[in-house]
Q: What sequence folds into this?
């Protein structure tokens, strides 16, 4: 997977966005969502990947995260989930979505029949506490802005509930103490 985005490969925090091609809402499918959560969780447990904020929307996700190998880890997460998403749609015989993945494939991609993710992940280094707060608010209010929920605390695929209710969500937030 090519990427033109560069990071400092340090423990700096980054705000990242990764989007499914043509905004196909693949994460409305439980198996696809589970694949993404598994990939992120595995990276946290096995690859020294830290997640501080997240939201998973139907067709994209945002993270505030850090790792000394951020580019490699995000590529791995996207590669794993792309394979699982394709497998799921092949099992369902969902020719419409598979055809959209075929049509979205870039010409230089010769190893794959499909393109599931848009290329890259748009990393933005968090340079200040103000910027961190702004990006965190953006993440937590994204589902409200889209009209998916009335309150950021109603959306279970975000870290808002972790922070404000101290309830562990689908992805563990690094450095956060949860109440029992």
A:
């Amino acid at each position: 997977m090519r990427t033109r985005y560069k990071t400092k490969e340090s423990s700096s925090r980054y705000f990242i966005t990764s989007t499914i091609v043509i905004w196909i809402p693949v994460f409305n499918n439980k198996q696809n969502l589970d694949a993404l959560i598994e990939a992120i969780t595995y990276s946290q447990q096995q690859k020294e990947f830290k997640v501080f904020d997240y939201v998973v929307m139907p067709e994209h996700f945002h993270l505030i995260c850090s790792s000394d190998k951020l580019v490699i880890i995000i590529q791995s997460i996207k590669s794993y989930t792309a394979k699982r998403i394709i497998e799921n749609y092949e099992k369902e015989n969902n020719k419409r979505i598979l055809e959209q993945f075929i049509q979205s494939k870039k010409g230089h991609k010769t190893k794959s029949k499909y393109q599931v993710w848009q290329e890259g992940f748009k990393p933005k280094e968090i340079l200040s506490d103000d910027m961190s707060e702004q990006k965190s608010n953006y993440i937590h209010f994204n589902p409200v802005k889209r009209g998916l929920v009335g309150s950021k605390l109603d959306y279970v695929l975000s870290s808002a509930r972790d922070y404000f209710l101290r309830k562990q969500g689908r992805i563990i937030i690094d450095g956060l103490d949860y109440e029992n």
User: Anything to note?
Assistant: Residues 129 and 135 are 10 Å apart (CA to CA). Residues 1-9 have pLDDT under 50 and may be disordered.
